[in-house]
From TrEMBL:
Keywords assigned by UniProt, alphabetized: Bacterial flagellum, Cell projection, Cilium, Flagellum, Periplasm, Signal
Molecular function GO labels: structural molecule activity
Primary location recorded for the protein, binned into one broad class: other
Phylogenetic placement of the source organism: Bacteria, Pseudomonadati, Pseudomonadota, Alphaproteobacteria, Rhodobacterales
Cell location: Bacterial flagellum basal body
Signal sequence range: 1-22
A Pfam family assignment: FlgI
Name of the molecule in the record: Flagellar P-ring protein
Record has Signal as a keyword: yes
Coiled-coil stretches: none
Organism: Primorskyibacter flagellatus
Task of the protein: Assembles around the rod to form the L-ring and probably protects the motor/basal body from shearing forces during rotation.
Superkingdom of origin organism: Bacteria
CC per GO annotation: bacterial-type flagellum basal body, distal rod, P ring; outer membrane-bounded periplasmic space
NCBIfam families, alphabetized: PRK05303.1
Amino acid sequence: MKTVMKWVALGISLLISLPAQAQSIRIKDLVEFDGVRGNDLVGYGLVVGLNGTGDGLRNAPFTEEIMSNILERLGVNVSGEQFRPKNVAAVFVTSVLPPFARAGGQVDVTVSAIGDAKSLLGGTLVMTPLNAADGEIYAVAQGTVIAGGASAEGEAAAVIQGVPTSGVIPSGARVEREVDFDFSSLSTLRLALREPDFTTAARIETALNNNFRGSVARMLDSGTVELNIERTGASSPAHALVRVENLVIEPERRARVVVDQRSGTIVMGSDVRISRVAVSQGNLTLRIAEQPVAVQPSPFSDGETVVVPRSQAEITEEPGPSLAEVPGGTSLSEVIAGLNALGVNPRDMIDILKSIKAAGALHAEFVVR
């Protein structure tokens, strides 16, 4: 109770805390399997059918260029012609080719305007090839764009909600080319931890060796565990991974405090500890008032009316607590009990945490976003 009262005196508020007890997590949720990953795709296309909200071709000449190329491929000769339609927009189309995607499969795509189009609502993406980093075409996208916003305007006012210049096409791209990767021929497979940690990697190694009843796994470093497929006795790497990915362990996490200054959100891990430290917080208020006074000249004189400035400046400091002491080894659960007792702006909490970290009393990784 003594610790709680000292923190209440500080007037600090905490938003989010993580549970203290350890939880068992599946290996598939902790690692990435070497070679089992997606590939980014990108393309440059044209959205048509817009209701006068497309690119202004004077400001986006590349839209006219790609429109001419598409029409010429369709057998329409537009050489030397000048056209200024307002219902087309140039867009970038992005997608991710999932691992083991086969020809004929479908993937989602994201469509984003790159010109001065006002909205993609109701538009249709014309056939757009999607290239990978090697320059090869792996998918072709086409379909109706579902934009995530709405816009309306009149002669004197306009209102926009969301982002109408970006949208998605569910299953909008069809896979045309497969990634060459012979997964079945692998003799060893590396497990890459999403959060590298020596203790977690050692626990994964132990869990794999115990499950397969042999020395099949070897920890290479804090972020990699190597699995020998041949020693597992599985008929294929795929069958070995079926047993691997559903094993559960208790991952070890670093003590971490994450702060988002834009939204004022603070997240603390359960292992955060604070050493013995003294903290004091005060608020200064500055007030400046302007009360100009008009000075009239004397009667029957040649003077002019003059406005004389009158300013009042005042600085006041709100009464606050004196220097408060936080006992050493304070845990997160003890801190929360005091912090939540009095609602203070979370941004003040961020400043206090920064000061405690600078003093070397906050034993955690401090991440500011």
